[in-house]
């Protein structure tokens, strides 16, 4: 038999039901040390990047953010004039 019985009190549906089953697992001290070593290795390899490729992307984002701020100021001015 199923562990839970659900009944629709009103309406004809459709009904979508979802859930999660979480299980807590105690880890050994050794496994925690292994995870820390993996994180260190990932952080070291993550620092390497192709020369010049990383500096171009943030500059574009900064320009876009500056343009949006200017547009917002223009919108505020138009609103003030209508009042």
TrEMBL record:
The keyword Cell cycle does not apply. Its main location: nucleus. GO terms for molecular function: chromatin binding; histone binding; RNA binding. It comes from the Eukaryota. Belongs to the nucleoplasmin family. It is found in: Nucleus, Nucleoplasm. The lineage of its organism: Eukaryota, Metazoa, Chordata, Craniata, Vertebrata. This is Nucleophosmin. Residues 25-38, 67-83 have a biased composition (Acidic residues). Residues 1-23 form the Nucleoplasmin core domain. PANTHER family: NUCLEOPHOSMIN, NUCLEOPLASMIN. Residues 21-83 are annotated as: Disordered. Keywords: Chaperone, Nucleus. GO terms for biological process: chromatin remodeling; positive regulation of transcription by RNA polymerase II; regulation of centrosome duplication; ribosomal large subunit biogenesis; ribosomal large subunit export from nucleus; ribosomal small subunit biogenesis; ribosomal small subunit export from nucleus. GO terms for cellular component: centrosome; cytoplasm; nucleolus; nucleoplasm; ribonucleoprotein complex. The gene is NPM1. Signal peptide: none annotated.
């Amino acid at each position: 038999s199923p562990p839970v019985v659900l009944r629709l009190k009103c309406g004809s549906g459709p009904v979508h039901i979802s859930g999660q089953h979480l299980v807590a697992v105690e880890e050994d001290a050794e496994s925690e040390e292994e995870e820390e070593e993996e994180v260190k290795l990932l952080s070291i390899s993550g620092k390497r990047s192709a020369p010049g490729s990383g500096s171009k992307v943030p500059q574009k984002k900064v320009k876009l953010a500056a343009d949006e701020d200017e547009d917002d100021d223009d919108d505020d001015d138009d609103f003030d004039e209508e009042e």
